[in-house]
Amino acid sequence: MKKYSVIPQPRVFSVCGDEAVFTLTDNLVFECCEGSRNSLNELLGFFREVFCMEPVGFGKEKIRFEIDGEIEEESYFLKVERDRILLRGGSEKGLFYAVQTLKQLLFSGDGKLTEMEITDSPRYGVRGFMLDCGRYFFTVEAVKQFIDMMALHKLNEFHWHLSEDQGFRCQLEDKLLLTEIGSYRSHTNFNSIPHEGYYTKADMLDVINYAHSKYIKVIPEIDSPGHVMAMLAAYPELACFPRDFSVSTFWGVKHDVLCIGKESTIDFMKEVYGELAEIFTDGVIHLGGDEVPTVRWKSCPDCQRLMKEKGMKDESDLHTYYLDTIGSFLREKGIEVRMWNDRVKDNMTDKSITWQLWNGAIGKEDVAKELNSGRKFVLSCSALSYLDLPYAETSLAKAYNFAYEPEGLTDEGEKNILGIEACLWTEFVPDMLTADKMTYPRLAALSENAWTMKDKKDYGAFIEKMPSYYNLLSVLGIRPAPLKVTEPKGIRRLAGKIWWQRRQLTWGAHHNIISDIMAKKALGKISETE
Length: 530
Ligand code: ACM
Ligand code: ZN
Description:
About 40% of the residues lie in helices and about 20% in strands. The chain is of the alpha/beta class and about 525 residues long. It folds into two domains: about 10-120, Chitobiase, domain 2 (2-Layer Sandwich); about 125-510, Alpha-Beta Barrel (TIM Barrel). The chain starts with 11 loop residues before the first strand and ends with a helix.
């Protein structure tokens, strides 16, 4: 029997017999419906790119598009009969997912299909992919290629990480220096060549419209109050100890963060997020909030004053205060706020902020407690979902077997797991060749974790789909890691692990020693003038 390859694996997939009843020709009839335009365009684009075909005509083979409001929004039904394919979605989005499945069926079946029926719907509502454009700038064209691939994998949220210590990439009309100064760094960790780039408002709107045509939401992230060296290079007054800062050229968690004690910093950041919210209208904004050392706050007169005024017990309360303040500012505009899971212990942020779980610093019991008490989570556990990790650390099998299951969840707690997101951090991903190698085929594994029901997941069956998947990627111009590289053994595995650990050491940021000395000097000056 013909083996069809569809990723992510559909919920119910029944193939009848061996005889091909439908053959792709360039004489197809399309029976469209209201709302089927994006789906039709997607299919025609695929025929053009992959089969070099422009099918229009009056032949006997028909493809029919239908929308049925009785079915769930993202669900679809696909049926192949003699000379006829029916695609029925619960909405435009569901129909679009039916097309993604049909593309893969036709590709793996060499344009011929036997009778079959598929009934499909996703496990999770959030199926995300994050691209870090702060460390390295990726062109609009490259971003669109990721969006195309997200659509193929039925992912629906593009998390656009737009600012980092190493670069601020999102042009804000009200704060032009952020990109004029903050988008350029003098050299990189790979060579002494400067690196730069940012997105204009027109670029961002172009990406947003493109993503929307593929039913993908765009969630922008400007990371604060840490990871802000590029912002401080442009506006040093946002720091506790203003001085000449440069956009970082090296990785690691920096000691210089936003000064929470100055009201002017909070006002500035409200303006930043306010303008961001005007550009990105999908109703979700990510504040970042990760990896924030408190060392500057401990010696900053402004931060200490605020702590006293508000009766805060320690500097970590400043972190929470900042996120809650910006969080409520955005929520008042009707925006869902996300942040990384760093503020998780006893002084947790507002329950309406969704946490993106990324590290193991929070125990599963704490996660369960939060979920049960109403906190929403997106799961991006670094050991499983960080696509920048070497395959020696996160092999394809490990990524596939993603299972983060906190125990003791109530029904409500279970529902508060919104979904899963894979993250491509780019400290060591300077170009699309490397990006492809790290992302694929692990994105395929992620898509099955996010879409496919737990009892339908099967690693053996997934691996059987890889030859067809690799062929398809190749036709689409994507260059995945060779399959054998995705499961390193012996010396290769050891070397990969050593490389990773060496990288982690640099993350400890020994270069903060110098910035600590400079900050002390600045503190001396502040004390003299007081
Ligand atoms: C993170 O990896 N710092 C979110
Ligand atoms: Zn301060």
